[in-house]
Amino acid sequence: MTIKPEVKKPSRSRAANKAFRRQQLIDATLDCIDEVGFAGTTLAKVATKASLSQGIVIFHFKSKEILFEETLRYMTSEYRNTLQSALSKAPDEPIDRLCTMIRTDFDPKICNEKKIGIWHAFWGEAKAHPLYKELYNDVDIEFGNIIETECEKLSAASTAKMDGHSAMLTIESMINGLWNRYLLTPQRFDRKKSLNATLDVVSSIYPDCMDQVEMYKRRLK
């Protein structure tokens, strides 16, 4: 019998292994914040959740504060990347881009009970940690600016009585309110109804685009 030589799987590079461990610890931090809250999350609990030693956590992040900062950076990057990926596939029409942005804010990857709870946990600490506020504001302003740009185009080309900035504030307030509803009463949250309700707000602001919004809603079924 011929014994085939064992084929060894290529090992990860040092940089790849470092990135893997850091992501493993960030994921564990997200789980801990979800389970025991911001104040209850410690380096020891993160290490236990990741099945690693506390020394490994300290080696990669030095302190709890740095670990939390990098966790929030990860969340903002995930949100931004999901949005940009969706927009890159959307048609160039302002109404399609606007509807795509709204749909992305209700994407299960972004809009789920765990992630929304963690966002709120960081928001609650923003006053005492200016960097948290800065990171959140950066992505919030970026999202708002893109919405406002598309709304300004729609307002200029339609019979809407609302300018782009006011339309952006209205749409953002609707989304934020529904996110809060999901956090406070998850059993009453319906993703599809929430998305459709927000798209209905777009139709009410831009009645000239109502047919396009309805077509967009039908494509989501």
Give a verbal description of the structure:
This protein is mainly α. The protein has helices at residues 14-40, 43-50, 54-61, 64-89, 94-105, 113-125, 130-156, 164-184, 191-205, 210-219.
Keywords:
221 residues, mainly alpha, 10 helices, elongated
Mind describing the biggest β-sheet? none
Distinct helical segment count: 10
C-alpha Rg (nearest Å): 22 Å
Silhouette: elongated
How much of the sequence lies in strands comes to under 5%
The level of helicity is over 70%
What oligomeric assembly is this protein in?
Answer: single chain
Summarize the structure.
The chain is mainly alpha-helical and 221 residues long.
Helix-strand blueprint:
Blueprint: H1 14-40, H2 43-50, H3 54-61, H4 64-89, H5 94-105, H6 113-125, H7 130-156, H8 164-184, H9 191-205, H10 210-219
